[in-house]
Amino acid sequence: MQTTSELDFRQISWRTYKKKAVNEIVAELGNKDIISTDDEDLKTHGYSEWSTVNLDTLPVAVAYPRTTEDVAAIARICHKYRVPLIPFSGGTSLEGNFSAPYGGVSVDFAFMDRILQFNKDDMDVVVQPSIGWQDLNQKLANMDAGLFFPVDPGPTAKIGGMIGTNCSGTNAVRYGTMKDWVINLTVVLADGRVIKTRRRPRKSSAGYNLNGLFVGSEGTLGIVTEATLKLAVIPETYSVGVVSFPTIREAAAAAAGVMRAGVPVACMEIMDDVQMRVVNLSGSTAPRTWKELPTLFFKFSGSKASVAENISTVQAITSRNGGEDFEFAKDEREQKLLWSARKESLWSMLALRKNDEDVWSTDVAVPLSRLADLIEVSKKEMDSLGMFASILGHIGDGNFHESIMYNKNDPQELEKVERCVHNMVNRALNMEGTCTGEHSIGWGKKESLLKELGQETVDVMAMIKQSLDPRWILNPGKIMDVPWLPKETHATKADVAVTPIRRLTKQRASE
Ligand SMILES: Cc1cc2nc3c(=O)[nH]c(=O)nc-3n(C[C@H](O)[C@H](O)[C@H](O)COP(=O)(O)OP(=O)(O)OC[C@H]3O[C@@H](n4cnc5c(N)ncnc54)[C@H](O)[C@@H]3O)c2cc1C
């Protein structure tokens, strides 16, 4: 690794490079619509109201490629001019993952949203990055495929970003996370070369596992333009049940008991009393309302006999842990309402904001046996803030989220929230946990990553980045700092691109 003293950055007027890079992209692709510099477009591609962190910079342009070849050309040109490239799919990530600290071009795949190949007999599908997981499942249902894609993060998330964050969701306890469903990727590298990571069998031990490298790399190593994904068989039947508990510790202990008993639940989610109140207030399951107590949500799936057996085992475990009145959704409509109340809980919370309020929503994960301790202490600290704050999470994976409403213009409130989140992360790390179970690092959790894995491990990540993207143009500043840029350099004006390049000579240093 080069040291900071050998390296530096220089600011390049975007006006100089905009003309060159944008004109060259338009000339090469022969389509003016491929690039937008519209202010609103720049804002939606650099700012997110549900992200824990937003920067005072925006991308300087948004590119809308139609094909892998378009993406390769954009990368080649941006590589030549050392302009940062930030892939953008659904824009639902939560840790400033697609923010533009050094300006650059956001690459939005909105026009690359098709199923390219459906191999029903092989139970796989080849898709472009901008197809949403919900749209994919709707299309599979329309084809009467009997198959579905089980990874379910934010409702409007898309496959490219889901690969970027190695996301999961409520189904992960049964089906695993995004990395488990990727067979093969087509990836455009920083300099415009195009590679495929594998062919199409469901397993392969040929060479390095490049899928494992690109999944979760947050657009910092390559740009995914096609993905071959495994599909799962739709279970014969579903049932959704809800059970409340006097305390969050008892709810967490019941969840751990279900996991240790080896019951193959399809989903197991926790919501605290505050989050249940949010569901009631949002009216999203009206006319039905719920007890405002710590609650576990279960989804059971499989054959009718196996579902009945799993329900009875879970009922026994929850009642041993203080669970009251197991209630079931009456019909399919109620099942959907109940589940969407869980999936949209963040939006329900956002809908309750007043004036300048924001919601800080972040996650950690710990080994199962530590979950009850972690949740109980974190909940106590959150309640002592005197702010509207809730806990919810994918408890079967030892993964939970804190969501805290605060006034972003009040420095004291901001400081309180930051401290509370840091304490939660530190507690999780002290319990051999991780600073993020599914939201990834982005801009917001770089220091936590360093604490979690240590400098040497992060240096190995930087070496991989360096060898695949020597000019650090791919989503720079995410996961780890650009080694030769001081942290404060992201505070540039939107019309200036700071390219993360090295100062070549001493003379240049004074330019
Ligand atoms: C209401 C709500 C609920 C949520 N629930 C969950 C949940 O249950 N589980 C969970 O895991 N997450 C959840 N999230 C977070 C979010 O949905 C996930 O992080 C999701 O994976 C992001 O997908 P996206 O398409 O929105 O990605 P984006 O936000 O567009 O991008 C995410 C990252 O991937 C990179 N990227 C995007 N496209 C590509 C590409 N083609 N090639 C390479 N890199 C790319 C981006 O540069 C960025 O770093 C939730 C969010 C919301 C708003």
Automatic annotation (TrEMBL):
Residues 55-234 form the FAD-binding PCMH-type domain. InterPro entries: FAD-bd_oxidored_4_C, FAD-bd_PCMH, FAD-bd_PCMH-like_sf, FAD-bd_PCMH_sub2, FAD-linked_Oxase-like_C, Oxid_FAD_bind_N, Vanillyl_alc_oxidase_C-sub2. Its EC number is 1.1.2.4. GO terms for biological process: lactate catabolic process. It is found in: Mitochondrion. GO terms for cellular component: mitochondrion. It comes from the Eukaryota. Its cofactor is FAD. SUPFAM superfamilies: FAD-binding/transporter-associated domain-like (SSF56176), FAD-linked oxidases, C-terminal domain (SSF55103). One of its GO terms (molecular function) is FAD binding. It catalyses: (R)-lactate + 2 Fe(III)-[cytochrome c] = 2 Fe(II)-[cytochrome c] + pyruvate + 2 H(+). Keywords: FAD, Flavoprotein, Mitochondrion, Oxidoreductase, Transit peptide. Belongs to the FAD-binding oxidoreductase/transferase type 4 family. This is D-lactate dehydrogenase (cytochrome). The lineage of its organism: Eukaryota, Fungi, Dikarya, Ascomycota, Pezizomycotina.
